[in-house]
Specification:
mainly alpha; Serine Threonine Protein Phosphatase 5, Tetratricopeptide repeat; 7 helices; elongated
């Protein structure tokens, strides 16, 4: 019985010791914030982008390399001759050289539309729109391709 009283007394002492440590830990935390150095100038950048000039808006985000121009001409000649497979090959070579050129993607979309691959034509026109977001004339052509492709897909025209 004495042993049980002794253990209870030890538990009470341990509990009291625990509370004392907890109290001391709470008191020792500092609420003093470190001083900040004064700021002479604040560099604030506007959250609204600056208005672009017409030259900046119309500047293409892609480079028209001479080899790409040549491939576009060859593809155009093949399209005029209704040789769409050869036209697609020329355009795909151009895309491998200049993958960010939205004109190449738009022309390839046109070829795929002529070939009856309406889904592919739509997807290529969408890609061209993303790449050529500043070129409204190109985007208009792309939207016409997308509309025509969707219309032909819905009508069930065989590919």
């Amino acid at each position: 019985m004495r042993l049980i009283h002794l253990l209870n007394a030890m538990n009470k002492n341990l509990y009291t010791l625990f509370l004392a440590c907890l109290f001391l830990a709470a008191c020792s935390s500092s609420s003093i914030k470190p001083e900040r150095e004064p700021v002479d100038e604040i560099d604030v950048k506007p959250s609204i982008p600056m208005i672009e000039t017409p030259e900046q808006v119309n500047k293409p985000s892609y480079e028209m390399k001479p080899v790409v121009v040549s491939l576009l001409k060859k593809a155009g000649n093949r399209m005029d001759a209704e040789d769409y497979d050869a036209a697609a090959n020329f355009l795909e070579r151009g895309i491998s050289i200049s993958p960010n050129n939205p004109v190449l993607w738009q022309r390839l979309a046109t070829v795929r539309l002529k070939q009856g691959d309406f889904y592919q034509a739509e997807q290529l026109a969408v890609k061209s729109n993303v790449l050529g977001e500043a070129n409204n004339e190109l985007r208009l052509k792309n939207w016409k391709i997308i509309a025509e492709a969707k219309k032909l897909q819905k009508s069930g025209v065989q590919q």
